[in-house]
Every structure is written in structure tokens, then in C-alpha cells.
Design brief:
By secondary structure, the chain is of the alpha/beta class. The chain has 16 helices and twelve strands. The chain binds pyridoxal-5'-phosphate.
Length: 401
């Protein structure tokens, strides 16, 4: 395409970044190759000198992966993108490429489990000072960023309690402290929230979640300015090798084509399920950003166009009650994954957030009765029937004890 920025997101998701081979194929070509050949030795030399444009090796770049990177960059409104093998490869590459010993990182506490580990455990091993703050508390950000910092890492809305960070305010504070702001935008997707427009410098995805969205493959992506991607990130990726496989890039390209359809349907389903849950006896709390009773509803809706695909709710009776509900579900299956076309349910306290410990869970509001539900593409009426039946079964089981 010649002028991709003139197209709307649904169109960019279908056409963005496509480069056709000499065969004029309709679908994106899958270049399942590790290396590339040169016309002659001089072309190889020129490629290594950087005076000729030619693919060298799929660890550094691959035509199918490049189409995925271009398409996602167009959707995000970012200058450049690098794809990685997983979401965690994206988070770790972005942090490790950007930071060095003696640097300082401030992060919101409500991070995906492995992101929390990178900040709490990995970075300090290399002499990087790290500090967690309550992402909802602007005064806490202000205190932490009163001293110079090199990076801020945050997730909004967060997993699993859907806490929201004020992106513009935190970006302003971070920039005054000298920090580069990295946003893990997995829960919102590029269609619901565009962090770069609020001042973020780097946006990170686990493409495993909504971008594939059909439970098939792992992937990740990092988006930022051309200068940061080329000068800071690319040497790290080139030499350490967290690269995305061309096959997975091809799957993810096809995932992007249906992203808007899927996200719109999943958000509608999630909103319906959240409303249903809020009316059920035995459900003490429902967290969903587009519901008026979400503690940060106004901020969430100022930053996001819809509430997202994940609903968190708390059942009365702690872990036994939560387990009883999970075990009584028939259509909705127990899994720690999310963003899939199949609805999936998780008990965070005993799975995704088990390792952070009870004290940290308490700070994050992850009680033993909390359940995270990733809403898929089923008819929402079948989901609410399944949930209603499971809540009833759990109540009967507890009454009989
Ligand atoms: C899943 C997830 C990740 C990690 O992605 P992988 O593809 O599993 O490595 C990071 N952040 C968030 C918010 C996630 O949900």
C-alpha cells in the first residue's frame, strides 16, 4: 500500500504491510527460510556494510515477519516494530536492551507474573535498582519519580484486577524524571487503547493473546520510534535471538485480519457477562472497566474505547467457593491463558499469581475468592447460562457441607 495511514484500523489489519512476491499471491507469502542467498560476493559485502538492502538471516529479519511488523506498526500508529518469539521475549528484550547497571526502573505493581519477576528478580541481579508502586496512585508515582529513572514499566488495564493507570499523567512524570515509558498493552489491544497517543515511548504485546486469539501460537512485539527500535533494540535482538518464527508470523498476520471483528464481539460478550454476574447472589464484586461501578471507570473510558475481553469477579466463600464454581462450569474451561476465541476461566491466587506470595496478592486485591474470566466468541447467552448454573451448583455444594 502506498499511503497506509489514510486507512482505518479494520482496513489496516487486513492490508497493512503486505508485500507481494513476483507471483502476485492473494494471501501473505510464508517465507519459511532461515537464510537468504546473494547474487554475488559483492552483494553480500554491500549487505553487511549496510549499503544494500537484502535479507541476511531470519534471526535479524524475514519477509513474513516483516509483514507482521509493518501491519502491527500501522495499526498502532508506531514508526517501527520488532516481533519476538513470545510476549515475555518482548518485555525482557525491551528492558535489557534499554537498561544498564546503575539504572533505575519504576514499575506498577499490578504486572503480569513474569513481568513482575523481571522487575523484582532479574534486573536487580544486573545492578539495576527497581521500585514498585501502586499504579492507580498518582502520588505514589510522583514520589517514586521525584528521583531520576531510566524506565517505567506498566500494564493498563492490569491482570487480573483490571486496575487502570493514568497514562498521560504517568508519562509526564516519567519524562520529567528522564525515563522511557514502556506499556504492556496486552489487555487493551491496539484497537481499544493506543498508549503512544498518551505519551508512551514503547508499546509491548504478547501476540499469543488477542492477536492470534485462537490459541495456536506464541508471539510478541515491541513498537516504538524508528530511532529507538533501530539503535537500541535491533542490536540486542540481532545478537541475542529472541526472534519470531516466520510460520508464527504468518499465523499472526491472519490473526490481525480478524482482530477487530473478534475484539468487538468479545467486548460485547464480556460486558453482557459482567452485567449478568453483578446481579447474581454469591458474587460480591465484579470488575469490568466499562461498568459504572469500576473504581476507575471514568479514567478507563477516557483511555479505552471499550471495556476489554476480561472480567474479574469475586465469589463469597473464598477458595472453596471459587474452586466449586470453576469445577461446575461446563462450556467455560479452566486455563491460565486469555484472549482466546474460547472462554477461559482462572483462579489467579493458585495459578498465575501463586508465586508472588500472599502479601503481594493482598496488595493487589487478589483474594482467594477472585476469579478471572476471559470471554471468547461464544454466544453470550450460553456463557451466562453456564455461569448461572455453576454459581448455583457451588452454592448447593457449600450448603450441603
Ligand atoms: C501473556 C502475557 C504476557 C506474556 O506473554 P507470552 O506470550 O505468554 O510470553 C505479558 N504480559 C501480559 C499482560 C500477558 O497477558
Amino acid at each position: 500500500m502506498t499511503e497506509p495511514n489514510r486507512y482505518r484500523p479494520a482496513t489496516l489489519a487486513v492490508h497493512g504491510g503486505q508485500v507481494r512476491s513476483q507471483h502476485g499471491e492473494t494471501a501473505e507469502a510464508l517465507f519459511l527460510t532461515s537464510g537468504f542467498v546473494y547474487d554475488d560476493a559483492a552483494q553480500a559485502e554491500a549487505t553487511f556494510l549496510g549499503t544494500a538492502q537484502h535479507y541476511q538471516y531470519s534471526r535479524f529479519g524475514n519477509p513474513t515477519v516483516a509483514m507482521f511488523e509493518e501491519r502491527l506498526a500501522a495499526l498502532e500508529g508506531a514508526e517501527a516494530c520488532r516481533a519476538t518469539a513470545t510476549g515475555m521475549a518482548a518485555v525482557s528484550a525491551a528492558m535489557l536492551a534499554h537498561l544498564k547497571a546503575g539504572d533505575r526502573v519504576v514499575a506498577s505493581r499490578a504486572l503480569f507474573g513474569s513481568c513482575h519477576w523481571i522487575v523484582s528478580t532479574l534486573l536487580p541481579k544486573f545492578g539495576i535498582e527497581t521500585e514498585f508502586v501502586d499504579g492507580r496512585d498518582l502520588a505514589a508515582w510522583q514520589r517514586a519519580l521525584a528521583r531520576p529513572a531510566n524506565a517505567v514499566l506498566l500494564e493498563s488495564p492490569s491482570n487480573p484486577c483490571l486496575e487502570v493507570v493514568d497514562l498521560r499523567a504517568v508519562c509526564d512524570l516519567a519524562h520529567k524524571a528522564g525515563a522511557t515509558v514502556m506499556v504492556d498493552n496486552v489487555f487493551a489491544t491496539p484497537l481499544l487503547q493506543r498508549p503512544l497517543e498518551f505519551g508512551a515511548d514503547v508499546v509491548i504485546y504478547s501476540a499469543t493473546k488477542h492477536i492470534d486469539g485462537q490459541g495456536r501460537c506464541l508471539g510478541g512485539a515491541i513498537l516504538s520510534s524508528k530511532a529507538w527500535i533501530e539503535n537500541t533494540l535491533q542490536p540486542f535482538i540481532r545478537n541475542t535471538g529472541p526472534s519470531l518464527s516466520p510460520f508464527n508470523a504468518w499465523v499472526l498476520l491472519k490473526g490481525l485480519e480478524t482482530l477487530k471483528l473478534r475484539i468487538d464481539a468479545m467486548c460485547q460478550g464480556a460486558a453482557a457477562v459482567a452485567d449478568f454476574l453483578a446481579a447474581q447472589p454469591g458474587v460480591t464484586r465484579v470488575l469490568y472497566p466499562s461498568r459504572k461501578d469500576h473504581p476507575q471507570h471514568a479514567l478507563a473510558m477516557a483511555q479505552m474505547s471499550q471495556g476489554g475481553t476480561v472480567v474479574a469477579f469475586e465469589v463469597e466463600g473464598g477458595k472453596p467457593a471459587a474452586f466449586a464454581v470453576l469445577d461446575a462450569l461446563r462450556l467455560i474451561r479452566v486455563s491460565n491463558n486469555l484472549g482466546d476465541s474460547k472462554s477461559l476461566v482462572t483462579h489467579p491466587a493458585t495459578t498465575t499469581h501463586m508465586r508472588i506470595g500472599a502479601e503481594e496478592r493482598a496488595k493487589l486485591g487478589i483474594s482467594d475468592g477472585l476469579v478471572r474470566l476471559s470471554v471468547g466468541l461464544e454466544d453470550p447467552a450460553d456463557l451466562t447460562e453456564d455461569l448461572g448454573r455453576a454459581l448455583m451448583a457451588a452454592k448447593v455444594a457449600r450448603a450441603a457441607e
